[in-house]
Amino acid sequence: MRLPIYWIDAFAETQFSGNPAAVCIVEAWPQDRLLRSIASENNLSETAFLYAQDGGWQIRWFTPAAEVELCGHATLASAAVVARYLTPGVESVSFESCSGPLRVSVRDDDRFILHFPSRPPRPSADAGPVAAALGARPSSVWLADYHMAVFDDQAQIRDLSPDFHAIAALDHTGLIATAPGDDVDFVSRFFAPAVGVPEDPVTGSAHCTLIPYWAERLGRDRLRARQLSARGGLIDCRHLGATVDIGGRAVYYLQGTIEV
Question: 67, 78, 103, 196: which has the highest count of C-beta atoms within 10 A?
């Protein structure tokens, strides 16, 4: 079996920044074991698999260790592949996923806007395990799909030295650390060692929770964010109530074929 594969740096302003994602096109769904093996071989935080159906696309996302129910950067990368290579000229791309229908708007200069569900956090009283896992005590801890630890300033986020084994033992698959930013509205880092991603370079799905939190705290619907991983990434954010807009740029790196 020969499958087209593309490698895109998502939420990137230049090549070798942002979050790299692989996108594979399938003509029929292979066994899950093969999808997991391809994702493990790619060894990126996510590989997206696309299957054309009814004028849109089915999408699934795999880390090197597991299938996940929502992924932002690999969805942006998938929309970039569709818009440049598969159906050039489209103004939006629609996906069906295990999290429901998703839509991505296509803008000029390889910029894309994910229209994703808003997943606001609720306060959590149990800060101890999160603080121990991060090696620093946050000012508050919140909970949605992921744990979220809020700190007072950007330097605290930059200087975190997390214990990945302790994070993997938490009762949710990911941990967000966030604080006000120096030159943006907020910054974050994201850790998900339980699904094979010790630190994710730029995490779209985490912004489903970050955007409603910071929009309410700052009293503004439009925000600018930066993820403070080694690669780094910029995210344009908008809070729309039940949904959020997560915007960023795609930078193209690789196009080829895999044989399995």
Answer: 78
Q: Which CATH architecture group holds 122-239? A: Roll (3.10)
Q: How far apart are CA 234 and CA 253, in angstroms?
A: 18
Just list the catalytic residues.
46
- Write the pLDDT tens digit of every residue in 54-83: 889 999 999 999 999 999 999 999 999 999
Q: Which CATH superfamily is domain 2-116+247-259 in?
A: Diaminopimelate Epimerase; Chain A, domain 1 (3.10.310.10)
Task: Please give the single-letter amino acid code of residue 240.
Answer: L
Question: According to the model, what pLDDT value does residue 103 have?
Answer: 97
Q: For residue 105, give the nearest of 252, 222, 251, 245 by alpha carbon.
A: 245
* Helix (H) / strand (E) containing 190: strand 186-192
> According to CATH, where is 3.10.310.10 located in the chain?
2-116+247-259, 122-239
Left if phi > 0, otherwise alpha if psi is -120 to 50, otherwise beta: which for 89? left
The DSSP output letter for 87 is S
- How confident is the model at residue 108, as a pLDDT? 87
Q: Which stretches of the chain score pLDDT less than 70?
A: none
At residue 12, the 3 state secondary structure works out as: coil
Cβ atoms of 168 and 194 within 8 Å: the answer is yes
Token look-up 């033992």 returns: 169
Cα 131 to Cα 88, 151, 215: the distances in Å are 47, 11, 24
Give dist(CA 81, CA 49) in Å, integer: 11
